[in-house]
Amino acid sequence: MSPTIPPLAGKLGALQSSVIRDLLKLTARAEVISLAGGLPDAELMPRERIAAAAAAALAGPGCLQYTESPGWAPLRDVLAARESVRLGRTVRAEEVFVTHGSQQALSLLAEVLLDPGALVVVEDPAYIGALQVFRAAGARIVALPMDAEGMRVDLLAELLAAGERPAVVHTVSNFHNPGGVTMSPVRRRALAELADAHGFWVIEDDPYGELWFDRPSPDPVATYSRNVIRLSSSSKIIAPTLRVGWMVAPPSVFRGVELLKQGADLCGSALTQQIAADLLADETWLAAHIDTVRDAYGTRAKALVHALRERFGDRLVSTDAAGGMFVWADFADGTDTKALLPRALDAGVAYVPGSAFAATTGHESALRLCFTTSDPATLAAAVDRLARAVEAQSAQS
Amino acid sequence: MSPTIPPLAGKLGALQSSVIRDLLKLTARAEVISLAGGLPDAELMPRERIAAAAAAALAGPGCLQYTESPGWAPLRDVLAARESVRLGRTVRAEEVFVTHGSQQALSLLAEVLLDPGALVVVEDPAYIGALQVFRAAGARIVALPMDAEGMRVDLLAELLAAGERPAVVHTVSNFHNPGGVTMSPVRRRALAELADAHGFWVIEDDPYGELWFDRPSPDPVATYSRNVIRLSSSSKIIAPTLRVGWMVAPPSVFRGVELLKQGADLCGSALTQQIAADLLADETWLAAHIDTVRDAYGTRAKALVHALRERFGDRLVSTDAAGGMFVWADFADGTDTKALLPRALDAGVAYVPGSAFAATTGHESALRLCFTTSDPATLAAAVDRLARAVEAQSAQS
Q: Average model confidence (pLDDT) for chain B?
C-alpha cells in the first residue's frame, strides 16, 4: 500500500513567494546590469573590522552559549545610547529588543499586534516584506498613496473620520523602499497625533535613516508619540550577515514580543550580536564608515538620477537622490514596465516593475531602480540600455 | 489630552512565559548548584576551532551579504552528506532547510502544517518549546505517555482507531527532553507505519542523537517513512551561538517553510552558517570533538545516576544515563517536587519540577536534572543537598 501523503495548512494557499526574489533568479545573467536587486554593496562592508570584532568576541568567555531572548545585554546598552540620541530622550535598554533583522521585528509584531481581520494601513507602493507579513497574519490591508512628503496622512485622517479603526499603520519613514521619498516633519507630527488620539500603533520601519546624502533625516515619528514602535537595523550600515535588527517598544509590546521570540527561535546569535555591539559602540570609526557609505551611494544615486533626466527628460518622473538605496521612477506616458521588462533584459538591464509593490493594483508605469552596487559609468550604461528598450518598444507599438 | 494606548492581539492572553526561564531567574544564585538549566557546557565548546573558521570565512568573499532563505548552499551540501549517512539513503541538498536553531524549524512547521484546531500529539512529559509553539498555533494537543521504550505508540494506534486524525505527531526520539528515554526501533517502525497508513506528519526532533554514551542511537524514525520531517541542530554538538539547526523535509513542506522563512526573517547569517559548514565538514576533527563531549557528559550522567540511586534507593526512580543532557526522576512516594523546590533552594540545589513539562497536569512527583555543566563531585554534592531537602520536608510533614 502506498503511503498517504498528509496535507499542509490551508492558509499556505494564500501566500506567495516574493515576486522580486523570483525575478532576481531570472535576471542573474552576467551580461545584464541589474538595478533590480535590493542589496547593500558588499565591497563597502567593513570586512576587516568585523573580523577583528569576531576574533575579540571569540577570545573572551561567554559568546558561544544561548543568549537572552531580547538580545545580548551589552548590545542593548549600545543601542539604547544610540537611540537616545536619535529620539532626543533617554531610551532605556529595557525598551530595546534585538531581532534577527528588521524583518523578524515585523513578523513578531504582526503576531503581537494583530487579530485576524484587523485593519493595517501601509504606504502605496508598499514595502514587500511588510505586505507579506501582514497578509500572512490575516490582516485587512489599506494602502495610502505617497507624494513628495511621504504618506498622505490627510487620507488617513479621512479614513479615521469615516470610522475605520486601524490596529497598525506601517511606514518606511526615510528614503522609502520602493518609493524613495521621506516623510516630512509636519506629516510625522500629524501621524503621531492621530495615533495618540485614536489609539493605534505606528510601526516606523527605518533601516535607511542614516544613509542620507545631503542633510540628516528628520526627527523620527517616534519622537512625537509613545504609540510608535521604531525599527532599525545594522544590515544597511554594517552588514546583513550579522542579522542584527532592533526595535524600541513600550513595555506591553516588548513583553509580547519576548514571549513570541522564545517560541520563534529562542534567541539570536551571541557571536554576531557581540560583533554588532563592538562596531556600533566604536563611534568615531562608525561615523567615518557611514560617511564612506553615504559618499559612495550619494555619488551613485546622483549619477543615476542625472542619467535618467538627461535621457528621458519629462517622460520619466523620478524621485530625488536624497538617501537610501532606491530611485522610484514613473513613465509619464503610461509605458507598461512589466511589458517592457523582457525587452529591457534583452537590452541588458534589469529593474523591478512598479506593480510588484502594489498592495492591490497600480504602479504599472513605474519602476524601482537600486543604485547601491553599480558605479556611475555602469549606471549611465544601464540607463542607455533602458532607453534603447523603450525605443524598441515604441517602435513596435 | 493623554494619548490612547492601543491594544495587543487577543491571542497573547493565552501565551505564557516559559516556566523554566522564569525559574532560572530565581535560581541564579552563586551558592546554588543548578541542575535546572538546559544548557550544553560552554567549556566543551570548540572556541578556537570556531575562531579559526570565523577568520577563514571573513578572509574570503561572500559571507557578509544576505544569504538564501533555505541556507548557505555549501552548508546544505555538508548537511545532506551527513544526513545521508544517518538515514541510509541519498539525501539531496534540496531536501535540507537550514533554520535559526531547531526551535525555528518547529515554529515554521507549526505554521506550515497546522490549521487552527488541528490535533497535535506530543509526548508526556513534553518538550516545552514544542508545546509553546503548538499552543500558539491554536492546536488541540493530546499528550501520550512514555515508558522505557519511548512514546506509547500503541495508545496512538488506539486514538487513530477511535477516529482521531492528528495533523502532526511530535517526538524527541533520542534521549528525550525532559523524559530521558529513547524510542525503541520497534516503536519507530510502528510510528512510521501509522503515519503512512493514516497520512499524518511526524516531526522527529533530534538534537541529542549524537550524544550517546555507550551505544549509537537507533536508526531515525525518518528512515522508515517520507512522512517524517527530521530536525537536528549544531547547538548541542558545536555551540548554540551559531544558531544553526536544520530539517530534512519533503518538497511540499520545504516550499511552505521557504515561503514563511522569507516573512519570518528573510534568511540566516551567512557568517555563522559558513562557520558551521567548516566544522561539520571536518569529519575527523568533528568525530573526535563529539567523542570528547560524549565522554564528559557520560561520566557526569553516570555520576549523577549513581548518586541518586545510592542516596534514594527505590524511593526515586530515575532514567538510565544513556545519552543527551537530562535525567528524569520520579519519587515513588509521591513527594511533591514543586512544594519541595523552595526547600531544595534553601539546601543549595535547583531542578525543574516535573509539572512544568505536563501538557495539562501530572508529573507532580517528578523532576528534571541536567548533568551537563557540573563535574561528578558537584553532582554528588547536589544529590546530597536534594536528600537533605527531602529529609527536612519529611520531618515537617
A: 95
Number of domains in chain B: 2
Whether residues A140 and A41 share a domain: the answer is no
Average pLDDT over residues A381-387: 98
Mutate to test the interface with B, among A243, A279, A325 (most CBs of B within 10 A): A243
Kindly state whether residues A232 and A292 are assigned to the same domain.
Answer: no
> Do B271 and A17 lie within an 8 Å CB cutoff?
no
Q: Is B113 touching A (CB cutoff 8 A)?
A: yes
Q: Is residue B4 part of a domain?
A: no
Check which CATH number belongs to the domain holding B118 and give it: 3.40.640.10
pLDDT digits 0-9 by tens, B180-222: 999 999 999 999 999 999 999 999 999 999 999 999 999 999 9
The ipTM value here is 0.94
- Co-location of B149 and B244 in the same domain: yes
pLDDT at residue A262, as a whole number: 93
Residue B43 near chain A (CB below 8 Å) = no
Residue entry with cell 558545536: B238
CB A124 within 8 A of CB A362: yes
B395: pLDDT confidence band, cut at 50, 70 and 90?
A: confident
Q: Which of A64, A167, A197 sits opposite B4 (nearest CB)?
A: A197
CA separation for the pair A259, A263 (Å, rounded): 7
Please tell me the distance from the alpha carbon of residue B355 to that of residue B357, in angstroms, as a whole number. 5
Residue A1: inside a domain: no
Which of B255, B282, B309 finishes a domain? B282
For residue B13, the model assigns a pLDDT of 73
Mean of all residue pLDDT scores within chain A:
95
How far apart are alpha carbons A135 and A146 in whole angstroms?
Answer: 21
Are both B116 and B27 inside the same structural domain? no
CATH number where A378 lies: 3.90.1150.10
Q: Which residue of B has its CA nearest to A100?
A: B265
Contact present, A157 and A187 (Cβ < 8 Å): no
> Same domain, yes or no, for A188 and A221?
yes
Which candidate in B169, B271, B272, B372 is best for mutational testing of the A interface (most A CBs within 10 A)?
B271
> Above 70 in pLDDT, residue B28?
no
Residue A267, domain member (yes or no):
yes
Kindly state whether residues B278 and B332 are assigned to the same domain.
no
Q: Does residue A161 lie in a domain region? A: yes
Alpha carbons B362 and B313: distance in angstroms, whole number: 23
Full residue range of the structural domain in which residue B258 is found: 48-282
Q: How confident is the model at residue A28 (pLDDT cuts 50, 70, 90)?
A: low
- β-partners of residue B119 are B140
- Tell me, yes or no, whether B81 and B190 share the same domain: yes
Give the model's confidence band at B112: pLDDT under 50 very low, under 70 low, under 90 confident, else very high: very high
> At residue A43, does pLDDT exceed 90?
yes
What is this structure's pTM? 0.95
Q: What is the mean pLDDT of residues A333-362?
A: 94
Domain termination site, one of B242, B263, B282: B282
CB B153 within 8 A of CB B186: no
Residue B187 CB burial class (10 angstroms; 0-12, 13-18, ≥19) = buried
Residues B163 and B185 in one domain: yes
